[in-house]
Amino acid sequence: MRLLSRKKSRKKLPGKDQPSIFKGAAGYRDLLAPSLVKEVKKDDYWVEIGATVEPVRYFRSFYAAMTGGTTYAGMLTPLYLADFGEADCDIALHVAPADPVRTLWDLEQKIAQLEAEFAEEKNSARRQVILGQVQELRDKHSAIRMEAEKPFFVSIQALVSSTDFESFRRFGSLLVKRFAGKGIHLRAADTRQLEALMEMSPLDRKAIKDVFRDMESSNIADLLPLGIGGIRHRDGVILGVSLQDEVILYDAWEPSMGNYNMVIFGRSGFGKSFLIKLLIARSVPLGIVTAIIDPEGEFENLVRGLGCPYIRLSAKSRDRINIFDVDVEEGDDGNARVDLDGAVQAVQAVVFKMIRAYDQSVLTGHAKVLIQDRIQQLYAARGITEDPASLREDAWDGGVLHVGGRKKRMPTLSDLHDLMEREPVLEKAAQLLKPFTRKGLPSQAIFDCESTVEIMHVPAFAICVADLDDEIMKPLGMFVATKWVWEVFGRDRKTRKRIITDEAQLMMSEPETADWEENAFRRARKRNISMCAASQGFEVFLRVPQGLGVLKNSSTKIMMRQEALDIAAVREKFSLSEGEAMFLLSAKKGWGIVKADTDAAIFYGKVTDEEYRWFTTDPNEILDSEVRS
């Protein structure tokens, strides 16, 4: 039977020159692939890759040759942080399992070889070296045989890249030099840079690289970037050491920081005040002018030890601060001006606090407006405006007229009290203000005065309010002192300055003082000031919106040991991990967590023995020191 085959006629496609409509859709290869991969010559020292956003990016690969026989946790930390300049650095750990049987056989052969050398060696020193090598190999053999360790082949590869060739070149050079001293020699994959680049990608199928090292599982754990992060500041104050015993530098003026402010929270007795003293003592040599508002008298030894003024506000002291003091500051436009509005608001905050201490109901809306108006009248009566020249007046000295040679006398609390007494609506408020004037109690009249304090050209100073009563005068004193320092520091924007307020929760007790504190944290950057609020009472800052504003406007948060009742709120506000929160619940004295914008580190405030004796506030340790001396 004959089979007849008939040739099928192919159906003619319409529009034969038109490609399929489905071929135009972009696939994942189109999205991932660069526009160009160029290795100019086979023996070139880098690879160029084109892209859509940037015209070209340069790549150079290095393999790590390790000369040492041991590893340690965090040994590759500098490589992961890649703080060697303005370029990118990608790291690949190529790990391939080794055959345990073959590995044991290799170890046995090496041990036998060394034992033979040991038997023939006559030099006793050399014999001890060989004996140590044999013992190391036996330990390694035992760990693998007992399956306590597993063998691997490991290759460490670093890929440097940048769009700027000069930055790219400098980064690679510094990277190689930095690691050469650590027993890790980074060798460039020259003549095969394109191949090495492919080995960094999932497209590579070669499990074991040309440059590798045999390791066990514990060695690989040392290489992994566990706990990598930390504060990556290049200079600044030595805050302490990390868990890896590496020095932590902290610079509030680091360009990457949003602002210079900081908050410090911690339980009593776990190193909060100690850390503040460390910060002060190590900031002063760096030229950071520091003012401390001291509510408990803890900083006197430190400040006097630095040879700096320690000012006491009390009825028995001759140190006095006038709440009406105002000074010249540099405006946002660079011109000098007097912040008269800020001065009026600060004075009224103090006056409202004084009146509210006895009867809050007196401060009606109408009364507040009238008091504010009387404060403005006092400044106007002395011709004080936003013009810096308005703060000075002509003065005669020895028959010579000095034009604008003397600072004008500022208004006082008694002046305000006298004005208020003349206003029937403010008569009751004036009666409540009277105890705080020279007509009242001496212990409460310390702010009805002319200022006797003048601070100029000192690296640090402190204002102590420990002798004031806790309920009324101490919170007032802290606010007055902080506001006065703010005025003094406003004169010079070029100098870096820090205002430290310990027990800062007292500033949150009244809305006016809390408003002023929050506003200071908002404006501090423009005055080149680092505001620092330290407190045991984290919950106080959460109760009022001004406290939340202080937290929001602090780029640096330092947390020491925390109470179990506070830890949930601390974890939420500071975005802590569960592990970080658990650490703060059991942190030992001196340990804490510092968060500087996106950087974070666990640290210990390590000091010298001399610094410890200088900083400690433990009465038992102070007593023991005095007995020994």
Characterize the structure shown:
The protein is elongated. With 629 residues, the protein is α/β, with parallel strands linked by helices. The chain has 21 helices and 22 strands. Strands 12-17-11-18-19-10-20-21-22 form a nine-stranded mixed β-sheet, sandwiched between helices. Strands 1, 2, 3, 4, 5, 6 and 7 form a seven-stranded antiparallel β-sheet that branches. Strands 8-9 form a two-stranded antiparallel sheet. The protein has three domains: 28-97 and 149-223, no CATH class; 231-308 and 457-629, 3-Layer(aba) Sandwich (Rossmann fold); 322-450, Helicase, Ruva Protein, domain 3, CATH 1.10.8.
Unreliable stretches covering 5 or more consecutive residues: none
Query: Kindly, what is the distance between the CA atoms of the first and last residues, rounded to a whole number of angstroms?
Result: 126 Å
When the domains are counted, the total is 3
CATH architect. name of the largest domain: 3-Layer(aba) Sandwich
Number of contiguous helices: 21
Q: How confident overall, as mean pLDDT? A: 85
CA-based shape: elongated
CATH class of the largest domain: Alpha Beta
Give me some keywords for this one.
629 residues, alpha/beta, Rossmann fold, Helicase, Ruva Protein, domain 3, 3 domains, nine-stranded mixed β-sheet, seven-stranded antiparallel β-sheet, 21 helices, 22 strands, elongated
Can I get a quick summary?
This protein is α/β, with parallel strands linked by helices. Strands 12-17-11-18-19-10-20-21-22 form a 9-stranded mixed β-sheet, sandwiched between helices.
